[in-house]
User: Fold this.
Amino acid sequence: MVEEQIRARGVCDARILAAMREVPRHLFVPRDRWTEAYEDRPLPTAWGQTISQPYIVARMLELAELEPGQRVLEIGTGSGYQTALLSRLVREVCSVERIHALLEEARERLAVQGATDVRLLEADGTLGWREFAPYDRVVVAAAAPRVPEALKDQLGDRGILVIPVGGAAIQRLEVWRRTPVGGWQCSRHGECRFVPLLGRDAWREEQHPSQN
Ligand code: SAH
Assistant:
């Protein structure tokens, strides 16, 4: 998985590659999908959600420019796979998931992995997690129509926010950087396809095509 899907496509951060070799991805997918866990695509999990394609996870982590001392806010814990990777790459991970059952499963998996310094919250992640702000990085693992304001507010000086932004069918990975003079710099990267970010400052459940 790491050599053919990730390094071959240009992600070469040694720490990210090492973390992806170490975290057993099959333990984050349903048991009847174990044989597919290392394939080059997203896989369905419970509650109509997905565990993202390994390459996209690696790409987002690379775009976030992670460093060991950082505190990271993750929106969309899902299976907990990306959370487990983050916990190996930074000092502290705060992760928010709106679906109770997914969060509890992720909690168990992360405990099995011995992931420390991970905090999990069941809530609407479009509002961020004010208690532990500011964050050095924010990584959003669900597709948003625009960047939720609270996530920008809770990003610290020189912080970086990585988020898929676009319509229901296709999005682009966007990187938002808080500049030293108090402005923002945005760059756009490859196309991607995530499940919707549903919440107060994103898609309303009743409005999103996938929910009907
Ligand atoms: N990183 C995860 C990706 C999960 S898919 C993995 O690799 O497994 C995206 C997740 O975002 C889903 O679990 C979905 O329930 C969650 N989500 C969607 N909108 C949300 C919101 N407003 N707040 C928190 N989580 C949300």
